[in-house]
Amino acid sequence: MPPLDLLPLAASESNLLAAREQMAFTLGFHIVLSCIGVALPATMLVANYLGLKKGDAHALELAKRWSKAMAVTFAVGAVTGTVLSFEFGLLWPQFEHRFGSVFGIAFAIEGIFFFVEAIFLAVYIYGWKRLKPWAHFWSGVPMVITGIGGAFSVVAANAWMNQPQGFTLNAAGEVVDVEPLKVLFNPATGYETAHMILAAYMVVGFLVASIYAVGMLKGRRDRLHRLGLVIPLTIACLATPVQLFVGDTAAREIAEDQPAKFAAMECIYETGPDQTEYLGGICTEDGVKGAIGIPGLDSFLVGWSTDTEVIGLNHIPDDEEPPAHTLLHLSFDAMVGIGSALMGLALWFGFVWWRRRDIPQTPWFLRAVSISGGAAIVALWCGWIVTEVGRQPWIVNGYMRTSEAVTEAGGIWFAFGLVLLLYAGLGTGAILVLRGMSRRWREQGAENVQSPYAPQAEEAS
Amino acid sequence: MSKADAAAAILWVGATFYALFGGADFGGGFWDLIAGWDERGQRPRETIQRSLTPVWEANHVWLIFVLVVLWTAFPPAFSAIFSTLYVPIALAALGIVLRGAGFAFRKSLVGLRQRRAMGATFAISSLLTPFFMGTVVGAIAAGNVPAEGNGDAFSSWIQPLPLLIGAMFVATGAYLAAVFLVGDTRRAGDEEMERYFERRALGAAVVAGAFAAAGLFALHSEARYVFDRLTAEGLPLVVLSLLCGAALLLVLLRGGRRLLRPLAAGAVIAVIWGWGVAQFPYLLPTSLRIDQAAAPDPTMTIIFIVFAAAAVVVLPSLALLYTLAQRDLLESEH
Q1: Complex-level ipTM
Q2: Partner residues linked to A175 by β-bridges
Q3: CB B82 to CB A93 under 8 A?
Q4: Angle at A250 between CA A246 and CA A253, to 5 degrees
Q5: Spatial distance between the Cα atoms of A88 and A106, rounded to a whole number of angstroms
Q6: Which of A216, A315, A445, B103 has the fewest CB atoms within 10 Å, measured from its CB?
C-alpha cells in the first residue's frame, strides 16, 4: 500500500465521516426504491396474467394500480440512482481514479439493463388503454429480466469491493490489467446477488401485502383487497425460505472470506473453537454484555462442529478492524431475527392456505402482515449496514482505505445537510402522491372496477 | 484508431444522444417555465407534457451512460473533473433531482396549487441542470480542469466562457424542444400550438446562435487550443452546423415540416462533434490526453460489448417507444 494519507488529518477525517454518512443515507433511501424496481414488475405481471387468463377485472385493476404506483417510485428511484452515480465522483473521486476501470465494468453492464427497464416501463404504464391486452402484458416482461440483471450487476460491483480480484497493479498502485470475468464473478458475487434479489422480492411482496392488510384491518374486506394481499404475500412467502438458506450460506462464506467482518458482527474477540453464538447484547473488549449466549453454536454454524475455529478480532490488525462492533452485531441479529419471524409468517400463511385455501381468519394475521413490509425494509437496511460498515476501514477490501478515497472538496457537511432536506422533501412528496392515488382509487370503489383495457382492444385480442 | 480513441468516440455518442434528447427535455421545461401562469399557459403546458411524459425517463438514462463510460474507460479524467467542478456538478445533480421529482409528482397530483408548486419546481430545475452542465463543458474546454484534479472550485468555471456555454446549453435545449414540439403539433393538426412553438423555435435559434457567436470570442481568449482546432480541423463541422441552422430557419419560415427534426438535430450534432474534433487528442485540454487517461484494454473491450448491446437492444427498444409515442398509442396521463 502506498501511503496516501498525506492530508491534514482533521479535514480528511471530517470529510470522511460526512461522505460516509451521506453515502449511507442516500444508498439506504435508494435501495428501497430499487427493490421496488426489481421485484414489483413480476408482482404486477402475475396479477396481469391472472386477470387476462381468468377474465378477472380485479386482478387487472391491481396490476394497473401497481404500475401507476411504480411510475412514481421508478421516477424517484431514477433520480436517487443518478445521485449515487454523481456521488461516486463527488465523494469518492480517488476510488474512481484508481479502480474505476475495474469497478465500472459491472456498472456499464447495469446501464443497459436500466435503460431497457426504463423503456419498457414507459411502454407498460402508458400502454394500458391503447395496446392490445396480451401485447401489453408482454411489454412488461422485459422489466422482470432487466430488474434481476440490473440488481445482479450492481451487487456484483459491491461484491467486488468485498472480495476484490481480477486486476493487476503496478508498483505505483495503478491498475494495469483487468480480467472482467473475474471481476464480475468474484467469490462474493454468488451469495451477495442471490441474497439481494431475494431480499427485493421479500421487501416488495411483504410491503404491498402490508398495504392491503392495513386496508382489511380498517374493514375493507372486498375481493380487491384480498387479492392485493394474497398475490404479493405468496411471492414473498416463496422467497423467504430460499432467502434463509442463501443467508445462512452467505454467513459461512463471510466467515471464511472476510473474517474481520464476521468477527465484528458475531462479537468474537478471541480466535478459537467453541465460539458462543450471542443473540443481542453490547460488544465490549471484555466480552459481550447483556446477550443470550448459546455455547458452541457459532462454531457449529460456521463449520458444522463446535470444534470449528473461528477467527477473532485479536487476529485482525488494529488499523484494519471494522468500527462499531455493537452496531454490526445488532444489525446482523436484527436481520436474522426479522428473517426468521417472516419465515414464521410464511409458514402460518402456507399452512392455512394449504388446509383451507384461505388466509388465516384472525386479525392477528392481518396485523402481522401489516408490519411485515416495514420489518422487511429494516432487515434490508441492517443487511447493508453489516456489508458496508463491516468492510470498513476499506473501500476495496485489503487494497484501498475509505480514507484514501474520499474527496478533498470543501462543504461536504453542508452538502449532506442539503441532501437530507432534499430527500426529506422527496420522500414526503412520494408518500403524499402515493396516498393521494390510493385515496382516489378508494373513492372509485372496488365494485365499480372495470377492465383497464379499452373495449375495442379486448375484442381485437 | 486505438481502443482508447474508440471508447472516447462511444463517450461522445452517448453525450450526443443526451444532448439531443435530454436537451430537448430540458428545453420543454424551459417553455413550460415561461408559458405564463394562467389559462394562457395551459395549452402549451399540456402540449409539452403530452410530448415529454412517455419518453423523459428513457432520455435521462443517456446521462447515466455517459457518466459510467467516463469513469470506467477514463477514470483519471472522471476524478479530475469531479474533484474540480464539484460545485456546478452538484448543482446540476440538484436540478436533476428536483426536475425528476417535480415532473413525476405533478402528473399524479390533482390539486391545482400542488400541481403549480410541482410544475414550478420542474420548470426552474429544467434551467439549472443544462446551465451548470454547460459550465462544466466550458470549464473543460478552457483547460481549467488540471489532470491531477482538485482544481479551484470556483475560478475554474466562473469565467466568461463556461458561463456563456451554460447559457448556450439552455438556449439550445429550448431550440430543440421547440422544433420537436412544432413537429408534434403539426402531426396532431394543432395549428395554434404549431405557430406558438414556431415563433419560439425561431427566437431560440437566434438566441442560441448569438450565444454561440459570443462563445467563439470567449473560446478565442480562454480556450485557445480548442479555438485553433475548431477553426481548422473542426471547421467543416462548424460550417455544417451553420448550414443546418440556416436551412432550418428557411424551412420554419416556409411552414415545411419534413426536415425540421433532422436539421435541428444535425446542427447540434455537428457542434458536439466539432468540439470533440477540436479537443482531440485531449480529454482535458491540454493536460490529459485520451491515451493517458485510458483504462486497460480488457475494460475497453467490455465498453465495446456494452455499446454493441446498446445498439442491438436499447436502440430498437427506444425506437419502439418513440414509435408508440408518436402513433399516440401511449397515454400521457395516468
Answers
A1: 0.91
A2: A169
A3: yes
A4: 140
A5: 14
A6: A445
